[in-house]
Amino acid sequence: MKPEKGTISGLQMALMLYPAVIATAFLTLPTITAQYAGNDLWLTPILSGISGALTLFLAVRLHRLYPGQTVIEYSVKIIGTVPGKIVGFAYFIFLLYLTGVIARQYAEFVKSAIMFKTPLLVILSSILLLAAIAVRGGVELIARAATILTPVFVIPSFVLLLLLPDLNVQHLFPVLEKGWIPVLKGSLAPNAYTSEFFLMTFFLPLLSNPEKGAKWAAVSIAADLFSGLYASLLVLFLLGPDTADKVYPVLTAFRYISLANFFENLEALLVAMWVIGNFLKLSIFLYAATTSLVQTLELKDYRMVVYPLAVWCVLFSLWDYPNLPSLDNHIKYVSPFELLAFFNAIPLLLLLAASARQVFKGSPNLPAKGKNAVE
Amino acid sequence: MFAIGKITAPIALLLLLSGCWDRVELNDLSLITAIAFDKPQQNNSVEVTAQIIIPKVKGGGDGGTGGGGGGQAKQTVTRTASGSDIADAISKLQMVIPRKIFWGQCKVFIFGEEIAREGIREHMDFLLRHPQPRERGYVFVSRGRGADVLELFPPIERSSSEVIRELAQLGIGLKVTLEQLSIRLKGESGAQALPLVHILPKSKSSKPFETIAYLSGTAVFKDGKMIGELSSRETRGVLWVRNEIDEYTVTYENDPAKGKVSIHPLHAKVKLVPRIEDGTWKMDIKVRTAGDLVQNGTPLNPMDPQVLKKMEEGMKKDIQARIRDALKLLQRDLNADILDFANAYHRKYPKIWAEAKDEWETKFPEIEATVDVEARINRPGMVNSPGGISQETGTEK
Amino acid sequence: MNKALVAEVTIAVAFIVWFERKRVKKIPGKERTLFVLLLLSAWIMAFFDLPNTPGLASVFDSLFGPLRPLVEE
Question: What's in the keyword line of the UniProt record (chain B) (predicted)?
Answer without folding.
Answer: Germination, Lipoprotein, Membrane, Palmitate, Signal
